[in-house]
Design goal:
Blueprint: H1 2-21, H2 30-41, H3 63-66, H4 80-102, E1 109-112, E2 118-121, H5 130-142, H6 152-181, E3 184-188, E4 191-195, H7 215-230, H8 236-243, H9 247-258, H10 296-311, H11 334-339, E5 347-348, H12 350-367, H13 373-390, E6 397-398, H14 418-429
Antiparallel strand pairs: 1-2, 3-4, 5-6
Helix pairs in contact: 4-5, 4-6, 5-6, 5-7, 6-7, 7-9, 12-13, 12-14, 13-14
């Protein structure tokens, strides 16, 4: 309780400092904004990778899966010095969280509390995607030298990743199996699935919803299992024995349960009469996560949900292709009603929009069509415009397309999220954002 009080006090100071002290970059060209952001995101003084938001002195391990899976993409690295800084900071960040895992502290948030002292705290509920973020960060290191790049730091990062995996494999295996063991059977009108949040909320990237039985939360658990197998941390047969079903069946049951109406409902607890109020943009999940879109039934569910969002004006910032998290503000705790209204509802997260665009490109690639590429490009163009207009890659945009501001929140430039935007832009347009 004392640790929670200290951590929350530190974060309150961060928000107030942002409100009254933060200086914002002027509106300039995209290349200069990017260079400024990368110098800030990977500053050598940082103890771990941070977003650049007012709560940036805290560490959110899940972000490696959700918001910055392309920290080591060579296309986004400015020069060899930038590569060295990124590899070192990524290694420090992953090692810190692996130490916490070894100590049995799998938490949504780590807050620094003095020299080499940290507090692990769950702000809203126990995490569902922290392990996924750790595995995604570790995977970035391991795969660094597999990407075409001339930076020596990449091979050094891959070597560091192999050492970390060998040292902490047993600890990660223990926690992944603990997560699997916490799943509970849920029955709903003849459909059955294993969920991680049957009786209480579990946090995911949009954890302020404080809801149970959420699609994205359970999709993160599936993605954690998949990544654990890919990295050789757990054996598929061991996991399937614990789950009592094949991993493919586990995923199929989730799709049947959350997609029973022909689209992906964001929560089974949501009984909204209109489909648009049952959908949230975070259904796109994480890069290399739940959706592989190789199966026609999966593509149909994805397409139906996407089409609802594209067609519904209440999901859009007017006259743009910025999509809000949801058409209606979900459940909020008291602190959000006071300090950050609409934080997870009637506001736009540029990075969720980037992932939306990327899943659209996945769909077209897997289906051999050009159904959504134009929409994906519109999203990315609008994010570029707002980035240049507001002087940096934004964490949030208001429902009217302005900087998201409340009395305690002066808006923030999300430095570490910027590289992901460059990666998806390159994929959508076939050319680099910088210099275009």
């Amino acid at each position: 309780m004392l640790a929670s009080l200290v951590a929350n006090s530190i974060q309150a100071v961060n928000f107030l400092g942002d409100r009254f002290l933060r200086k914002y970059h002027l509106s300039v060209g995209i290349e200069e904004l990017y260079r400024h952001s990368m110098n800030a995101a990977f500053a050598e003084k940082e103890a771990f990778l941070v977003t650049g938001a007012p709560h940036a002195s805290a560490y959110y391990p899940r972000d490696f899966a959700w918001f910055y899976p392309d920290v080591l993409d060579p296309e986004t690295i400015m020069d060899s010095r930038d590569a060295v800084r990124r590899v070192r900071l990524l290694e420090k960040s992953v090692r810190l969280m692996l130490e916490a895992v070894r100590a049995g502290v799998v938490t949504t948030t780590i807050v620094p509390a003095g020299r080499n002292r940290y507090i692990g705290i769950n702000y809203f509920s126990r995490p569902s995607d922290t392990l996924l973020g750790i595995l995604a960060g570790l995977e970035q290191l391991l795969s660094a030298e597999q990407r075409p790049a001339s930076y020596l730091a990449m091979s050094q990062g891959a070597h560091a990743g192999r050492l970390l995996l060998a040292e902490y494999r047993a600890d990660l295996k223990r926690e992944i199996f603990k997560l699997a063991g916490a799943l509970e059977r849920f029955d709903d009108n003849g459909l059955t699935a294993l969920l991680c949040d049957v009786s209480a909320p579990r946090s995911a990237a949009t954890d302020t919803r404080a809801e149970r039985r959420r699609f994205v939360t359970n999709a993160c658990v599936y993605a954690t299992f998949l990544r654990g197998i890919k990295l050789g941390i757990i054996e598929r047969t061991e996991l399937e024995q614990l789950l009592g079903r094949a991993l493919s069946q586990y995923k199929k049951e989730l799709l049947l349960l959350f997609g029973r109406h022909g689209y992906i409902s964001h929560s089974l607890d949501c009984r909204a009469p209109s489909p648009v109020y049952s959908i949230a943009l975070d259904f796109v999940n994480v890069h290399q996560g739940f959706w592989d879109l190789n199966v026609a039934e999966e593509r149909a569910l994805f397409a139906a949900t996407t089409d609802f969002i594209l067609a519904e004006p209440r999901f859009r910032v007017p006259n743009t292709s910025h999509f809000l998290v949801s058409a209606d503000n979900p459940l909020n705790k008291l602190i959000h009603k006071i300090a950050a209204p609409a934080y997870q509802g009637r506001s736009s997260w540029p990075t969720f929009n980037v992932e939306f665009a990327d899943r659209m490109l996945d769909h077209d690639e897997c289906s051999g069509t050009e159904t959504y590429r134009a929409y994906a490009r519109d999203i990315l163009r609008d994010i570029r415009t707002v980035t240049e207009t507001h002087g940096g890659y934004q964490e949030l945009i208001s429902e009217k397309g302005l900087k998201y501001r409340t009395w305690a929140y002066q808006s923030a430039v999300a430095h570490s999220w910027f590289p992901r935007f460059l990666t998806v832009w390159q994929r959508a347009f076939g050319t680099s954002l910088l210099g275009s």
